């Protein structure tokens, strides 16, 4: 059974850091592209970062966030530094087998950044 479970969200002050984790019960985890998305209240879901062999990032988080994965643990991480109130959102992880196509999704974890 495929499950993606996010953890690590919470409330932080602007300028602070959080590390999100996504544990995947996913056969052949290493063959999937893994990604993080976020959705702020009243806004569309947006891409944050993804990684297969190498990472890529949305411009809004480049230089502040780092995505990484540990295939031995079936886990993908999102290290978030220099957090801003605009980063407040529900963060979800996703897995896909083709670029731009994510077929498995977690339920998300709330990140709130106070000013």
Strand content: over 45%
Which structural class do the helices and strands define?
A: mainly beta
Mean pLDDT: 96
Total of DSSP H or I helical runs spanning 4+ residues: 0
The 3D shape can be described as globular
Helix-residue proportion: under 10%
Write the layout of secondary structure elements.
Layout: E1 3-7, E2 10-13, E3 18-25, E4 33-39, E5 46-51, E6 55-57, E7 65-70, E8 75-80, E9 89-98, E10 101-105, E11 109-114
Parallel strand pairs: 2-11
Antiparallel strand pairs: 1-3, 3-8, 4-5, 4-9, 5-6, 7-8, 9-10, 9-11
Report on the architecture of this protein:
The structure is a single chain. This protein is mainly beta and 115 residues long. It contains no helices and eleven strands. It has strands at 3-7, 10-13, 18-25, 33-39, 46-51, 55-57, 65-70, 75-80, 89-98, 101-105, 109-114. Strands 2, 4, 5, 6, 9, 10 and 11 form a seven-stranded mixed beta sheet that branches. Strand 7 and strand 8 form a beta hairpin. The radius of gyration is 13 Å and the shape is globular. The termini are far apart. 33% of the residues are buried.
